[in-house]
Amino acid sequence: MNSAVDGSEAITDALGSLPSGSPVSEVARRLLDLFTGGSIAPGTRLPAERHLASSLGVGRSAVREALAALEILGIVDVRPGSGTYLRGEASALLPQTLRWGLLIGERNSEELIELRSGLEIYVARLAATRATDDARAELSRQLDAMRGAGDDLAAFARADFDFHLALADAAHNQTLRDLLHVVRSLLQVYADRAVHSQDDADRALAEHEAVARALDAHDADGAASAMAVHMTTAAERLRRLLVD
Asked: Is 79 helix (H, G, I), strand (E, B) or coil?
């Protein structure tokens, strides 16, 4: 049988075993490490659940849940009545691994805040030299939405979120955008409530306007500095929520 279709033996040999009682996340990590290593061809059919479970030394339920998670992330393709197949080249799977690594790991909110700040500052620097006229127009539209939100803080938060997404698009670095989107998503439960007064909204708007002005001037240092100021105050608001 074609090895690009059925690589069961090669996969089970490469996986090795896990300690007894390993959680689903460890099963998924082991599978993911193998799939993104480049030794398994796209389209390869995976061994049956019972064979994977036996090879790894874990229960079938752990394998089943791990494969279900990998399917959601687009790593594997489950075809009823046929089997489970690896999707895409290793390089094409890397953005999904960024999401996966953050989503299944233990998350420290303070570390996420620090990571988000660093990423946003770098995104602003890149966008200052890479943003197209269309990208600047989109940022301007989000600023208008923030100004027009009035005392509707939920609408302000949505425009704020969309501004940062547009800024990430303007940086033209898809991997950086993927990572930043995951970090922001993990913090979103707090970010949606971070601006809880008109004073907070006014200050945040002024900080976003400073970033936009630097982009319009193609000033990378200025954009990074303006975003650093915004990230300092935004982080302070998030930390207040975390200790409430």
From this structure: strand
